[in-house]
Write a structure and sequence with these properties.
Layout: H1 20-44
Length: 50
């Protein structure tokens, strides 16, 4: 199964250009959901890698 990548920097490292809440929302929630959904679909299609 695929795992969500770990950010190589702190969530506040991009401030003041991108705020910490935006990074946490997009990486911590959206990207996490994309990874979870992809794994579920791959498993249903019989294409899951372990």
């Amino acid at each position: 199964m695929f795992e969500q990548i770990k950010l190589p920097y702190a969530t506040d490292a991009l401030e003041p250009y991108i705020d910490q809440l935006t990074v946490e929302t997009h990486h911590g929630k959206h990207h996490a959901t994309y990874t979870k959904t992809f794994n579920e679909l791959a498993e249903k299609a019989g294409m899951a890698f372990y």
